[in-house]
Amino acid sequence: MNFLIKDKVALVTGANRGIGKAIVESFLQHGARKVYLAVRDIKSTQALCQQYGDKVVTLALDVSDAESIKQAVLLTQDVDVVVNNAGVLEIADPLADNAEVALQHEFDVNVLGLIRIAKAYANTLTSKGSSAFVQLNSVASIKNFTPFTTYSASKAASYSVTQGLKDVFAPKGIQVLSVHPGPIKTDMGDKAGFDVADSVESVSEGIVAALAEGEFHLFPDSVAKHFEGAYQSFADGIINAEQGAE
């Protein structure tokens, strides 16, 4: 199963900055007909709207608010590809005073937000015959980084959910892509203290290519590709294998 961005309608959560903004721009550069900018603050997309005109449409959507998602779905029935990019990161090791609060916040957005978005758009994407669902996970989904233990745990959970989505969406003609960036130059990357980070375009352009090639995993940047090399045999033998296969 593969999916070409050209002439398609996309929705990107967290589209106002960082990786989300880069995804919007890459999709449009590769011929997307329209991109919905799904954000909590509709004023935050003014620059994108001025630059791309009627090729982009801003709508209020908070992945932690089921009602806002419901209202957004009603306005976006023409969507062919959903990119769930919105996420949060807290700095908390396993014994940190804020570990429980951090984990609850990250799970609400990074895991339950994914489930909310996937459930809300399942019927819309199924109706297209050929569609796609993209989830921004992380290399932290397969390796715990101690200062970001709660974030790593939330991304491990979202990666597991993404695997389940692949299985339930495949019979419906929905291609699922799990994206696993390493250090990327974004506000979140700055918060994490990354001294060296790849560009957001490494992720956005990688998504376009991976969808066209029908891939499930994308490890887009230089650090992520190091993970991919070590992880590939496990992914091929376990994650990508048919359920019940010997």
Automatic annotation (TrEMBL):
GO molecular function, one term: oxidoreductase activity
Pfam families for this protein: adh_short (PF00106)
Keywords of this entry: Oxidoreductase
NCBIfam families tied to this protein: PRK08264.1-6
Family stated for the protein in its record: Belongs to the short-chain dehydrogenases/reductases (SDR) family.
PANTHER family: NADPH-DEPENDENT 1-ACYLDIHYDROXYACETONE PHOSPHATE REDUCTASE (PTHR44169)
Protein name, per record: Short-chain dehydrogenase
Provenance organism: Paraglaciecola hydrolytica
